[in-house]
Structures are given as C-alpha cells and as structure tokens.
C-alpha cells in the first residue's frame, strides 16, 4: 500500500525522466548497478549486493525485505528471460531517492510480468505476490534496447 502517493509518483517520475536505459549504464549518484549472468547463483549475488548497498546508504533496516524482493525478481529473470533474443545478461539496479529506494532488475525479455493467483501449495507462482506484499509498489517499464526493467519501490523509515 502506498503511504505517500505524491512522493512515490515523484520518485517514479525521476526514474522515467532519466530512463532505466541510462540508469542501468551506471555512474549516477546514489545508484548501484550490477550485471548478473543467467545462473541460479545470481540470486545470492543480487541479495548480497542489495544488502551491502543498503547498509552503505544507511538504510540496513530495508535489507531483509529488499533482499527477498530482489531474490524474486532475479529468479523470475533467470527463469523466464534466459532464452530471450540476444541472451544479454540480467542487470540489477538500486537507486536511492530519499525517502525511497528503488530496486530494478532488467532482462532481455519483452514478456510482461503477470502476477498469478498465489497457490500456497505449489513451489512456484508466488514471486510477484511476494514483491507486491513486501514493497510499497512495483511495476515494469520497457527498455529502449528491448527487454524490460521490473522494479519495486521501498520507503525508508528515516
């Protein structure tokens, strides 16, 4: 549930004005970008990068929720985008726009992420439900080069 819709809209407008394509190139203040191969251990790498970055930014209280969400986003990218044209790597992006932190995972697939009705008995199909539950809001944006960035927004306590 969005607590401050105007601040959330401002944060998302910033990312759209700059563009995920440019943000993913890195070099912007308060952004961290990390390429990830299409491998299962990329999920652990993404969690580690997320926790370390949030700690460095002084918001370690987001670490557990953000690591869970980034795990789901990277797992989805590895699972569903691996065979997309060009087989580029996955890209993790973290961006701090106080009081928000934006996590995004870019992949080469143009397939739109679609939440499924959670089935708590099966072993998969709950990823976007988890992303929605633990983040303030989430969505996706197409990339100019093809593919998409799936993002989740968190609000810091401070």
Structure description:
With 158 residues, the chain is an alpha+beta fold. The protein has a single domain, classed as Heat Shock Protein 90, CATH 3.30.565.10. 39% of the residues lie in helices and 23% in strands. The protein is built from 5 helices and 5 strands. It has helices at residues 5-18, 20-24, 42-56, 63-81, 127-134; strands at residues 31-36, 90-97, 100-107, 137-142, 148-155. A hairpin with a 2-residue loop joins β2 (90-97) and β3. α3 packs antiparallel against α4 (63-81) and α4 (63-81) runs antiparallel to α5 (127-134). It starts with a helix and ends with a strand. The mean pLDDT is 82. Residues 37-136 form the Histidine kinase/HSP90-like ATPase domain. This is Histidine kinase-like ATPase domain-containing protein. One of its GO terms (molecular function) is protein serine/threonine kinase activity. InterPro entries: Anti-sigma-factor_SerPK, HATPase_C_sf, HATPase_dom. Keywords: Kinase, Serine/threonine-protein kinase, Transferase.
Topology record:
Elements: H1 5-18, H2 20-24, E1 31-36, H3 42-56, H4 63-81, E2 90-97, E3 100-107, H5 127-134, E4 137-142, E5 148-155
Antiparallel strand pairs: 1-2, 2-3, 3-5, 4-5
Indicate the CATH topology. Heat Shock Protein 90
- Look at the structure and name the CATH superfamily: Histidine kinase-like ATPase, C-terminal domain
Spatial order of the strands in the main sheet?
1-2-3-5-4
Let me know the average pLDDT: 82
Separation, N- and C-terminal Cα atoms: 18 Å
Helix/strand/pairing class, anyone?
A: alpha+beta
Number of strands: 5
Order of helices and strands: HHEHHEEHEE
Q: Tell me the domain tally.
A: 1
Low-confidence spans: pLDDT under 50, at least 5 residues?
none
CATH class descriptor: Alpha Beta
Give the helix tally. Answer: 5
Beta-strand percentage range? 15-25%
CATH architecture title: 2-Layer Sandwich
- Major sheet description: 5 strands, antiparallel
Shape: globular
Pfam families: HATPase_c_2 (PF13581)
Protein name: Histidine kinase-like ATPase domain-containing protein
Keywords: Kinase, Serine/threonine-protein kinase, Transferase
GO molecular function, one term: protein serine/threonine kinase activity
């Amino acid at each position: 549930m969005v607590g401050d819709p105007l601040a959330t809209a401002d944060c998302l407008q910033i990312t759209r004005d700059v563009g995920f394509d440019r943000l993913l190139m890195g070099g912007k203040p308060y952004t961290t970008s990390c390429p990830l191969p299409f491998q299962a251990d990329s999920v652990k790498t993404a969690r580690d990068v997320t926790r370390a970055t949030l700690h460095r930014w002084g918001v370690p209280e987001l670490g557990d929720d953000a690591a869970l969400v980034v795990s789901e986003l990277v797992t989805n990218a590895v699972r569903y985008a691996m065979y997309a044209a060009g087989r580029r790597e996955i890209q993790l992006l973290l961006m701090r726009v106080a009081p928000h932190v934006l996590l995004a995972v870019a992949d080469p697939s143009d397939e739109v992420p679609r939440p499924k009705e959670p089935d708590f008995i099966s072993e998969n199909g709950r990823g976007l439900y988890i992303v929605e539950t633990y983040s303030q809001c989430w969505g996706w944006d197409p990339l100019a080069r093809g593919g998409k960035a799936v993002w989740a927004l968190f609000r810091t306590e401070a």
